[in-house]
Design brief:
This protein is 48% helix and 8% strand. It has three domains: 189 residues, no CATH class; 90 residues, no CATH class; 60 residues. It has a five-stranded mixed sheet with strand order 1-2-3-4-5, sandwiched between helices. The chain contains 14 helices and five strands. Helix 2 packs antiparallel against helix 9 and helix 13 runs antiparallel to helix 14. With 363 residues, the protein is α/β, with parallel strands linked by helices.
């Protein structure tokens, strides 16, 4: 057991320096690392009775002990030890919060969670053995319950099997011999904007922004009642507001919004200026802007080539020059280029493009 403990410790140390490069995972890590936001998630989104009254002080993060077991160097997944009151015989619940932020559903999730459960229970048993040698071999020893949760904010519905038994051959004939457990899926797509507004907490604001698929969706947020933002701005602790600003900045950056605009947006959150939060927000899509700029650059270059050919025919009238340089359709410019190469005079060229514009077949 000592060798295994050393190995696990070395594995943990090797992964302590891992930094998650996935933007959305980083945002999720900020959410679930914060006890206030994590408690809001457990109370308001899991629909598990035993978690309905969980408070921030009831949550202990023990993820550092399990960094070595996460796949793909992800540090957004977390393990929480939840203190539950008024439950006879149970002091704590181990809660696995698996944050799923991939673009497609992970159909092997049930097996991944099975591995996580085994590792966490193994760790628990070793911890108890250190405190009370031999206790795991006694008749009365019990393992803590584990509630596996997957938070999914990808597109569409979560379509993977949630029960491990469904992933095993002959599960009908041999069902009593197959591990039988389910994990809980919390899909963001389940919640409408109105559902989130009714929750009225800080996490609901983050969820509203997380639902945005493009900057055009910000128009929907302008329809949200002002008192929703006012209550959050008035009642949230300063530390939570700063965290909300950081999380939302991560989410906005994935929408290709310029850093300057994101900084102004998050600054308004930290200053509790929610009233004008979405009023002056501009819609940006850097990738689309770049695509348009590239297309315009090609069109401008083609137009200049047309002018170079026409210059051999004489002085180009200013009106014709403006007409050529303002054209942005590449197919039209290609045809004009051929016409300019064949034209024997500026007049002939102008007549040719006029006939093209009117639909006549110009050779």
């Amino acid at each position: 057991m000592e060798d295994r403990t050393v190995q696990k410790k070395e594995q943990s140390q090797n992964t302590n320096n891992i930094r998650n490069t996935r933007v959305k995972d980083s945002g999720a890590k900020l959410i679930f690392d914060n006890p206030i936001l994590c408690a809001q998630f457990l109370r308001g989104y899991t629909d598990v009775d035993i978690l309905k009254n969980v408070q921030p002080e009831d949550i202990e993060d023990v993820s550092e002990r399990f960094l070595w077991m996460w796949q793909e160097n992800r540090d957004s997944d977390s393990v929480k030890k939840i203190r539950v009151a008024d439950v006879p015989g149970i002091e704590t619940i181990f809660l696995i919060t698996l944050i799923e932020h991939q673009s497609k559903v992970d159909y092997d999730m049930s097996f991944r969670i099975l591995r996580y459960i085994v590792q966490i229970l193994t760790d628990y048993a070793e911890e108890q053995e250190k405190k009370h040698p031999g206790i795991t071999k006694t008749k009365g020893f019990r393992y803590p319950p584990i509630i596996p949760i997957v938070f999914y904010d990808g597109p569409g519905n979560w379509t993977a099997e949630v029960n491990f038994r469904e992933k095993v051959f002959l599960n009908d004939a041999l069902n009593e011999f197959i591990p039988d457990f389910s994990y809980l899926v919390v899909p963001l797509s389940k919640y409408s904007d109105q559902d989130l507004v009714e929750k009225g907490d800080e996490l609901s604001l983050i969820m509203l922004v997380d639902k945005l698929k493009s900057t055009a969706d910000f128009q929907n947020l302008k329809e949200i009642p002002g008192d929703y933002f006012e209550n959050i701005g008035k009642n949230s602790p300063e530390s939570v507001l700063k965290l909300i600003g950081k999380i939302i900045s991560v989410l906005l950056l994935k929408l290709n919004i310029p850093k300057e605009e994101v900084a102004d947006f998050t600054d308004q959150i930290e200053r509790r200026n929610f009233a004008m939060l979405f009023e002056n927000f501009e819609a940006y899509d850097v990738q689309e802007t770049r695509r348009i700029s590239k297309a315009e650059g090609k069109a401008e270059g083609k137009a200049e080539s047309v002018l170079e050919l026409l210059e051999d025919l004489g002085e180009i009238p200013e009106e014709l020059k403006k007409k050529i340089m303002s054209q942005r359709d590449m197919e039209t410019l290609k045809k004009w280029h051929k016409m300019a190469a064949r034209a024997e005079s500026l007049g002939q060229f102008e007549q040719a493009i006029e006939e093209l514009a009117t639909g006549k077949d110009t050779k």
